Amino acid sequence: MDVGTALSFAKVGEIRVHRGPISGIAVSPEGRLMVTNYGADSVSSIDAGSAAAVRTLTGLDEPFAIAVAGRRAYVSTVTAAYDAIVAVDIDTNRVVGVHPVACSVRDLAASPTGERVYAGRTAVGGADLAVLDTGTGHIDAIGIAATAGTSTECVRVSPDGRRVYVATNGASSGKLAVVDTHEKRVVDTVEIGSPIRDVAPSWDGSKVYVASCGPDFGAVVDVVDTRTNMVAATSKVAEINGLLVQLALSRDGARAYLVDDERVTVLNTHTHDIVTSIAVAGAPSCAVESPDGSHLYVADYAGKVTVFTVASTAAALLMADDEPTAPHEWVLPELLQLEPAMT
């Protein structure tokens, strides 16, 4: 989509999961949505392509972060004894592996091939990165910060899988650690002025967008040049007054979706101008675009996913000989409940 083309976001339906607040959302290459229901100890799978709610997998302890790689979804869970990375088969919606990990897991990311899952962890003495080999189940650790009071906020993998970006926060500011996946060590660190809320590498790997939010500067998006690992541009997003909770990129890389507790603010990544704001009822928690970039899915703390079409204004105009058609409202069945994942 041309960067100069105006965009419109039209609401076309709501998917009501009915499982309480949604904490994480991811989409498979085929377009199936996976959402984590933290308070309901469950993960729901939704066939977004046919607008059909599929099923809910119960028995997962406080699932929070989620990452999709191929035919697997990886979910972080929490118990009194340990945190774990749980592997779920997307086709069957069944648990196929449980990998206990030490310390507190904050976020997950998967390598492009699905051979590795990276978990950002926080402990009393600092933060590290757990590396799960999905084939063998072996877990290694890479030190990130050895300072007490430092916590991991998010983990993202570059498109080529050669770098992992780990955001950590201290008392008043954040840092972006750059990890070389071959050498298994931190090769650089980028200072960010405010606490980091989310990170998104560009699809060509040349940039990393870092969203931060704090009382001094408000919501800010920094653009890090991955060749130099230095901040190349900074944009203050005055339109965001609430708590910034997520940053997600569009499939073409032309837009950044900034999710706060009231709306989704759309930022043009080329001009750094605000394209529009999308109001969402129920306090948005996270968002993701469909694989083809035609739809935006926004999950919220009320337990539903709101579906928007993504279209250029020019494409939405009718030709003179076109007949107008009535908008199609999605009507979705209730989610089916499966047996508990673990007993």
From TrEMBL:
Signal peptide: none
InterPro entries recorded: Haem_d1_sf, Host-pathogen_enzymatic-act, WD40/YVTN_repeat-like_dom_sf
Identification of the protein by name: YncE family protein
Organism in which the protein naturally occurs: Mycobacterium kyorinense
